[in-house]
Amino acid sequence: MSQATHTEEPQKLSALSKFIFASRWLQLPLYLGLILAQCVYVYHFWVELVDLIRAAMGDGVALQHLLDAVSVAGSDAVRPTKLNETTIMLVVLGLIDVVMISNLLIMVIVGGYETFVSRLGLQNHPDQPEWLSHVNATVLKVKLAMAIIGISSIHLLKTFINVKSYEAKELIAQTIIHVVFLLSALAIAYCDQLMSKTHQQAQKH
After folding, report:
1. Among 51, 131, 141, 177, which is disulfide-ready with 62 (CB 3.0 to 4.6 Å)?
2. How many other C-beta atoms are found inside a 10 Å radius of the C-beta of residue 128?
3. Whose CA is closest to 82, among 66, 99, 97?
4. Count of alpha carbons within 13 Å of 37, Cβ hemisphere only?
5. Can you tell me the distance from the alpha carbon of 140 to that of 202, in angstroms, rounded to the nearest whole number?
6. 94, 66 contact by CB (below 8 A)
7. Judging by beta carbons within 10 Å of its beta carbon (0-12, 13-18, 19+), is residue 111 exposed, middle or buried?
8. Could you count the other beta carbons within 10 Å of the beta carbon of residue 91?
9. Mean pLDDT of the chain
């Protein structure tokens, strides 16, 4: 005798439940706005990169643009007349900073939409990000915290490279903020670990 297969029909939602559930689509304009912000970062990246290449070829106007971008307001440091190693390093770190913020935006846009709005249907897609296959609100928080630490590290490194332009209290403040970011990420990861262990123990019983 063949066994009959029973499929559970989806529960019918009330009108109020449908309305509340559909309210998640209000987040769609926010994610579209972040995509526009991503476009701004792409434009800014290429402007900085073109200026760096032109300055390396001896363009004085491009060099002034770069110095304006990396100089600290109110600093009495003498501006260089040609591209030097410190300026190149600061500009490259700025480009890396843009890339890391762009990665952060991608995680928020793709992961947030997948988690809070609607499935993207990327299963078995060759370009599906590895982290997206097991993303949830907690995992997304941990990844965002790690990305913020990376961005903070770049800013702190830029500060120490240009250390003569900053006062001691500014250096201490940036270092403390970076340490706070580190501790916050560790706390989030620890809470995630506790929740995972609790969930595993609940499944065993």
Report:
1. 51
2. 14
3. 66
4. 16
5. 23
6. no
7. buried
8. 21
9. 81
- Helix pair angle (28-56, 85-106), 10° resolution: 160
- Least Cα distance to 98 among 139, 41, 58 occurs for 41
Measuring CA to CA, which residue among 152, 151, 144 is closest to residue 108? 144
Predicted confidence at residue 119, as pLDDT, reads 80
pTM of this structure:
0.74
pLDDT of residue 121: 75
Task: Give the confidence band of 36 by pLDDT, cuts at 50, 70, 90.
Answer: very high
- DSSP-derived letter for residue 4 is P
CA-nearest of 44, 31, 159 to 93 is 159
Q: Is the dihedral of CA 166, 170, 175, 177 positive or negative?
A: negative
In the structure encoding, which two tokens stand for residue 145, read together?
């915290």
Distances (CA, A) of 135 to 113, 129, 143: 11, 10, 10
Whether 176 and 143 have beta carbons less than 8 Å apart is answered as no
What is the pLDDT, as a whole number, of residue 14?
81
Q: Are 63 and 55 in contact (CB under 8 A)?
A: yes
Per DSSP, 107 falls in state: I
Residue where the block lists tokens 């609790």? 198
Q: Which of 86, 50, 48 is nearest to 162 (CA)?
A: 86
